[in-house]
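[recover] target loaded
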């Protein structure tokens, strides 16, 4: 597979070279449109032309995001090659995985919002439903696919998702949006942006309700669904030499969770639920010391507090077994079974960008992060982790048309020790709008606190159950090899990217650790199993934007996974393809469609199609748009998991937006 796909890219490269013989050669196009060169910031942490990037990158633009009618940030990632997205245990806990390797937790991808990491180090995951982030506020999403963004550290194992929000200058005025469908899902959003002297600001808020799945695979009803509320304030000061940004956000999540299916435990009329509060503040300062040197300083604080409550009736026999009590076996006891987890993070980072000439750029950064967790359930108290990082990224034009890129991240954890993540890439520019690239990189995913320090038990009426303990695991390791081709054709509004990769993973730890299984294993939570895998594949994406407003985005990903682990193979989706089309009918009406197909997404095929019409009316004072459409599931399977079953495979939806 790797050789075949590599040959395909080399064939495409040869086609580009031969194309120079034609009248509309690449050189001619470049001379016509020298200024229309897309720039990205994620791989090297500083803006650079995408054609000079040595890693595989996807960019979801603001125009695509707003036309896609996607309501939640994580769902946008379904339009990045190799990703699959969907609810797993509950409607609020979504799988957002790249190249598989996991289902129940989101463990091996770094996620940033304006440079602020939202990845949890306590119980490795990204709580998408608790982010104080609205999809309408996003300017673009850059996804560095693969472990080759070494400057982001050990959690950048399979990919880095960098979410960049819009400047308040781009959203001046007010905006109100509302959508609902016939399955009980609805969402409302509002924002106001303003400008005063050198300051600009935006205040936004939203509330979304998801009804969730209807029933389990055995026909029993689901306790699924959630409501999330969030608010965000962004303030930006900017003058000729410096920029200051202040980002403040808070969110609240009310969610239904699944019943515990344990013999001797019943719920009566009660249903289990989860409450989660989250807040953050981030301050960033950027100073241009000279035309060739820029300094950036950033600090952020993030706090998350969640409680899951099960009001249950329990036979004394269960309490005797799990809580080491001496009670009558047949007696029933009522009370609250509680799980709690509080997380706090402080992170400070300084970055230097030095560009002495057009052929050389050096980006250095250093950071200190402190993570504190408190949980009676998972840790029987609190623990503080400290992480120190230093990174360097060098971009050097050795000679035209070859550009070298080298990166190195050094990090030291109080808990797990020191790790080094190197990356080396080379770009051969075919023109100012096309290049081929090669990259080799190595990265680690350090164990989370649950892997290393867990003392897991449940609390029932203030009494802790018999604890299970983590014994520690080695860091997971990946070595990746990539080859790719990127080509932008501005005169046609067309760009495409092709890539092949070979990833070698070792010491992969199981994410599905369970309290009950650990009890049976003598109280040891850490699994003795560690998985090895080799993943090879081919990925492609295409964007086309015509002069009359047509927008098309298509993706394709094929993956071959070689491993002896059955559990790991079940998490792999060997083939995923998506297509989005937005077609203006006239100045006011557009027809839109999206299609997604995933083969064997956790053993189930998944396929759906959406169609909707949008009508837009504009006056001097306001712009109003409204839409009506429907979605149909083309498969007849549960989604990802046997208990994710919807009775109605078709849904109708409407939305309306007012800007003034």
């Amino acid at each position: 597979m790797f050789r075949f796909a590599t040959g395909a890219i080399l064939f495409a490269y040869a086609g580009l070279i031969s194309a120079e013989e034609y009248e509309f050669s690449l050189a001619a196009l470049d001379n016509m449109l020298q200024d229309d060169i897309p720039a990205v910031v994620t791989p090297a942490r500083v803006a650079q032309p995408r054609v000079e990037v040595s890693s595989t990158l996807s960019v979801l633009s603001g125009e695509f995001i707003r036309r896609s009618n996607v309501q939640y940030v994580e769902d946008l990632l379904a339009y990045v090659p190799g990703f699959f997205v969907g609810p797993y245990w509950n409607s609020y806990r979504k799988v957002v995985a790249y190249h598989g390797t996991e289902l129940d937790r989101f463990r091996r991808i770094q996620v940033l919002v304006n440079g602020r990491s939202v990845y949890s180090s306590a119980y490795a995951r990204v709580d998408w439903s608790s982010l104080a982030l609205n999809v309408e506020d996003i300017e673009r999403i850059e996804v560095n696919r693969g472990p080759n963004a070494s400057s982001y550290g050990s959690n950048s194992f399979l990919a880095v998702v960098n979410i960049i929000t819009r400047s308040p200058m781009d959203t001046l005025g007010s905006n109100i949006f509302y959508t609902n469908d016939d399955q009980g899902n609805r969402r409302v959003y509002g924002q106001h942006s303003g400008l005063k002297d050198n300051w600009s600001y935006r205040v936004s808020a939203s509330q979304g309700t998801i009804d969730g799945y209807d029933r389990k695979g055995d026909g029993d009803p689901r306790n699924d669904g959630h409501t999330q509320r969030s608010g965000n304030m962004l303030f930006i000061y900017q003058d000729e030499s410096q920029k200051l940004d202040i980002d403040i956000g808070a969110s609240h999540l009310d969610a239904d969770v699944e019943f515990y299916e344990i013999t001797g435990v019943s719920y009566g009329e009660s249903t289990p639920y989860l409450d989660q509060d989250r807040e953050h503040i981030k301050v960033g300062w950027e100073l241009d010391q000279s035309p060739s040197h820029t300094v950036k300083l950033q600090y952020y604080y993030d706090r998350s507090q969640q409680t899951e409550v099960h009001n249950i009736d329990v036979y004394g026999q269960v309490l005797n077994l799990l809580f080491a009590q001496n009670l009558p076996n047949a007696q029933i006891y009522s009370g609250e079974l509680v799980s709690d987890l509080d997380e706090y993070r402080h992170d400070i980072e300084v970055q230097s960008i030095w560009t002495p000439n057009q052929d050389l750029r050096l980006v250095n950064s250093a950071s200190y992060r402190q993570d504190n967790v408190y949980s009676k359930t998972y840790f029987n108290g609190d623990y503080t982790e400290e992480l120190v990082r230093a990174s360097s990224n060098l971009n050097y034009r050795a000679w035209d048309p070859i550009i070298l890129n080298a990166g190195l991240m050094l990090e030291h954890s109080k808990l797990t020790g020191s790790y080094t993540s190197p990356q080396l890439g080379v770009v051969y520019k075919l023109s100012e709008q096309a290049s081929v690239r090669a990259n080799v990189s190595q990265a680690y995913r350090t164990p989370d606190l649950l892997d290393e320090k867990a003392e897991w038990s449940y609390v029932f009426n203030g009494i802790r159950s018999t604890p299970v303990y983590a014994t520690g695991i080695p860091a997971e390791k990946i070595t990746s090899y990539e080859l790719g081709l990127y080509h932008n054709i501005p005169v046609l509004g067309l760009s495409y990217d092709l890539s092949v990769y070979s990833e070698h993973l070792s010491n992969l730890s199981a994410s599905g650790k369970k309290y009950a299984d650990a009890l049976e294993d003598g109280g040891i939570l850490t699994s003795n199993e560690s998985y090895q895998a080799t993943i090879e594949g081919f990925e492609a994406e295409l964007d086309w934007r015509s002069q009359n407003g047509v927008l098309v985005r298509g993706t394709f990903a094929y993956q071959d996974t070689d491993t002896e682990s059955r559990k790991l193979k079940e998490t792999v989706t060997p083939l995923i393809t998506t297509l989005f089309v937005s077609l203006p009918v006239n100045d006011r009406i557009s027809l839109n469609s999206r299609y997604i197909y995933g083969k064997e997404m956790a053993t189930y095929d998944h396929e759906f199609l959406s169609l909707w019409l949008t009508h837009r009316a504009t006056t001097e004072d306001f712009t109003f748009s409204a839409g009506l459409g429907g979605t149909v599931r083309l498969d007849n399977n549960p989604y990802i998991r046997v208990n994710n079953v919807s009775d109605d495979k078709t849904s109708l939806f409407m939305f309306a937006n007012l800007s003034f």
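[recover] notes: Residues 26-659 form a domain with the Maltoporin; Chain A fold (CATH 2.40.170.20).
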